[in-house]
Amino acid sequence: MIFDANELASAVFFFDDQGRVCKQLHISEFEAVVDGFVALNDLRAQEARCAYAEIDNGLNVRRLVFFRLPINDSGEILKAWGLPLADLAAEGAKSRDLGAGPVLMACYSKCPIPHLRRALWDPELSPNNNMLLALKRAAAENSIGLQFREAEHRPGAEVGADERLRLEQELSTRLRKEYDKDLRDRMAQLLKEQRLRIATMNSEFEKRSLIMRRDFELESEALKQQLHVKEQALAQALNQKQELSEDLASQADKLSAVREYFTRKIDEARGSEEDNIQVLRHSLEAEYRARYEGRNRELQEALQAKELELLYRNEMEDQLQCELARLRQEREQVLTDSGEQILNRILESGLSLVSFQPGLTNMSVPINELADYLDDPEAYAAGQCGVSPELYEAWLEHYRLPVCRNTLDDATLCGENIDRIENPMDFTVGESDCCSKCRAQLKRSQLKLASS
Ligand SMILES: [Zn+2]
After folding, report:
1. Rounded Cα gap, residues 108 and 97, in angstroms
2. 69 with 78: CB under 8 angstroms?
3. Which of 23, 65, 116, 261 has its CB 3.0 to 4.6 Å from that of 14, i.e. a possible disulfide?
4. Distance from the alpha carbon of residue 396 to the mean position of ligand 1, in angstroms
5. Which whole-number Å values give the CA distances from 23 to 13, 132, 186, 379, in the listed order?
6. pLDDT exceeding 70 applies to what percent of the chain?
7. Is 362 a residue whose pLDDT tops 80?
């Protein structure tokens, strides 16, 4: 849209929380937003602080209205909102000069229509953040691209000033109408397209839902069939269960009767069986008792026989002992008698019995002691020497081999040659058969034992 050189262009500026200009809209774009064709998605759910500005062809701000704009969650302006922005601007109070004389301004504290003041706000004018200067800069930058025609100078064609003004206004009005019509046509076209799209989507949705419903019905039918089959199977199973239960009950009854019958039978059988067992036990006891007694008797008899036999044997042994003693006596008598006869004859003939025993000079043995001598010559000789047979035996050993018989530490005999003792009466065991060395050692150890 191109404005005439003497016309004022309109725009709306949005401020953020820090008071900076964050958004700029051409008035026609703002009207589209107000009519609900375009949403302010970046400003949804807030009350935006805005400034309506009228700007001349020198890009100077001439009129201002600071107003609040309520925006809902969808980014649309609330339907109830509506302010006569151009009227408020035209009737605004004179304020500071922003480059082309004093600006006409409407805000909360300077509102020409008092009942509308609550819809307005006061701009910050501090040196750090002067919103008027910010608006002046934004207008000068012209980032929304406002366009004005060049002022025509036709000195040749002199037209009256009133006529020229009228023509200009007529032209402006016509152009604005054309622009509005063009905008409305485009919006209508856009709306038509959107409606068509919505209709297409609806029909698509209906088609899909129809297909889905058909699928669902088919599936539902199949499930119903399955359910029916299952129900039939269930009914059949229930019937079978009922039959089986009845069968089971009758079987249980029968079983109970049979059990009762057999219980009775067992009781009867148990009674007669106990009698049989009693009889059997008695007969077995009698049999075992008879067998035991018989065996006992046999054993008693055998024992008596053995005792008799033993007695007889003892008697026999006594007799045999007596016989043996008698026979021994007889033998000795016989020996004595015959020996005496022989010896008497020997003595009569002038011979005598002499024995040679070690330790004794010629030992004559009288006839009556001959038996004793013959029984044990060494014991006899010991008696003749006047020593005990044990001492005589020890001496005899020494006499035959005169060596030291002391046992050394390593359990061997000393074996040292010593002097022979000729007479058994002079012999002392452990002393006479020891060498002088062993004797001294023995004496030492005895002394040691005594002292300890
Ligand atoms: Zn020795």
Report:
1. 20
2. no
3. 23
4. 18
5. 6, 15, 24, 163
6. 97
7. no
Ligand 1 mean position, distance from CA 423 (Å) = 21
Task: Determine the average pLDDT of the residues in 276-281.
Answer: 90
d(CA 390, ligand 1 centre) in Å: 22
CB of 369 within 8 A of CB of 403?
Answer: no
CB 89 within 8 A of CB 63: yes
pLDDT band of 190, cuts 50, 70, 90: confident
Token pair recorded at residue 315 = 């008697």
Pairs from 370-379 (Cβ < 8 Å, separation ≥ 24): 370/339, 370/343, 371/332, 371/335, 371/336
Main-chain dihedrals φ then ψ at residue 430, nearest 5 degrees: 85, -5
C-alpha of residue 391 to centroid of ligand 1, in Å: 20
For residue 449, how far is its CA from the centre of ligand 1 (angstroms)?
Answer: 21
Give the Å distance between the CA of 327 and the centre of ligand 1.
52
Residue 452 has pLDDT above 80, yes or no: no
- Helices 389-400 & 377-385, crossing angle to 10 degrees? 100
Flag whether the pTM goes above 0.90: no
The number of beta carbons lying within 10 Å of the beta carbon of residue 139 is: 27
Task: Decide the pairing of beta strands 354-355 and 21-26.
Answer: unpaired
CA 166 → CA 7, 9, 90, 173, 179, distances in Å? 13, 19, 20, 10, 20
Q: Which residues pair with 201 in a beta bridge?
A: none
Cα 57 to Cα 314: distance, rounded to the nearest angstrom: 178
Give the Cα separation of 290 and 296 in Å (integer).
10
Give residues with Cβ within 8 angstroms of 15, minimum separation 6.
Answer: 21, 22, 48, 49, 50, 51, 131
Distance 354 CA to ligand 1 centre (A): 37
Whether pLDDT at 157 is above 70: no
Whole-number Å distance, alpha carbon 430 to ligand 1 midpoint, is 10
Phi then psi dihedrals of residue 65, to 5 deg: -135, 120
One-letter amino acid at 74 equals S
| Tokens standing for residue 114 | 């008092």
Please say whether the beta carbons of 68 and 119 come within 8 A: yes
Q: How many angstroms separate the alpha carbon of residue 432 from the centre of ligand 1?
A: 11
Q: How far is CA 173 from CA 3, 30, 159, 167, 170, in A?
A: 11, 20, 20, 10, 5
Ligand 1 centre from 447 Cα, in Å?
19
Give the pLDDT confidence score for residue 48 in this predicted structure: 93
Span 42-72, pLDDT tens digits:
888 889 999 999 999 899 999 999 999 999 9
